[in-house]
Amino acid sequence: MTGAAAALARTPGRLRSLRTSDPVLTIAVVILGLLVAASLAGRLIPGLNDGTTTVGGRFEAPSLAHPLGTDSLGRSLVARLLEGIGTTFLLSALAVLCTAVIATALGIVAAYAGGWVRELVMRIGDVLYAFPAILLALLVAAAIGPGSTAALASIVLVTVPLMTRMVCAAATDVARRDFVTSARISGVAAPVIMVRHLLTCVSGTVVVQGTYALSVAILVEGGLSFLGYGVQLPAASLGLLVSEGNVYLLTAPWILIAAGTTMVLAILAVTLVGDALRDRLEPREAVDLT
């Protein structure tokens, strides 16, 4: 069995090992599951996220009729929050998917080619990674213009450098192993080696870094929407709700509390799941990041 095949065979066992009695991980998974279910409910159940079906008075405090109160237009905050969770999660997931594809391709090609190609990819990543994430995101959003597209592009540009670096480091370690050298000597085509051996062996790193990128994506979306460069009204996102809650903090503090708590729980849950995946999927040995 080749190293790539062995790595692939070990993955199901590692994933099954996540079913442990770790209470923190269990809580994180439950919270993440509830948030995902809420985001799906807000989009799939007719009328659930339609503010016109549950209109009350402006800035009503939490009550039996409106468990989280109402906003500045009298819309149920539960409905707005469900829509916001769905928007934030969908936008973040799409951005992370784009990031994973770009970073994995760049990292594997750079690792396989080595030499100046690897150095060029790593140094460009260093330059981008040196910029503060929110500053880089704001520059992209300002160039494209406010909106979901700007938020998506900003998240991708912020998260690609680190994931590329980690994938390249892991793939470089694999590229130096005997089974890859044997494949090269045997005349196996480079694309086949990169997909069959390198991609298979670094899949755990991609999953782990993708999970971390999701938490960063939620944070960046929140920051951009809070500053007015991300998702725009009349749509809702967690960042927009936090921004609205900040404006009406003294009048309706429940808006900021609900949206802010949801965002913090989402980021914390995703990060904890990422930590658990890292412990079980990534190799224990250190890899060269230079």
UniProtKB/TrEMBL annotation:
It comes from the Bacteria. SUPFAM superfamilies: MetI-like. The keyword Secreted does not apply. The chain crosses the membrane at residues 24-45, 89-115, 127-145, 151-172, 193-220, 247-274. InterPro entries: BP-dependent_transpt_permease (IPR050366), MetI-like (IPR000515), MetI-like_sf (IPR035906). It is found in: Cell membrane. It is a multi-pass membrane protein. GO terms for biological process: transmembrane transport. Keywords: Cell membrane, Membrane, Transmembrane, Transmembrane helix, Transport. Residues 85-274 form the ABC transmembrane type-1 domain. GO terms for cellular component: plasma membrane. The keyword Cell membrane applies. Belongs to the binding-protein-dependent transport system permease family. This is ABC transporter permease. It comes from Agrococcus baldri.
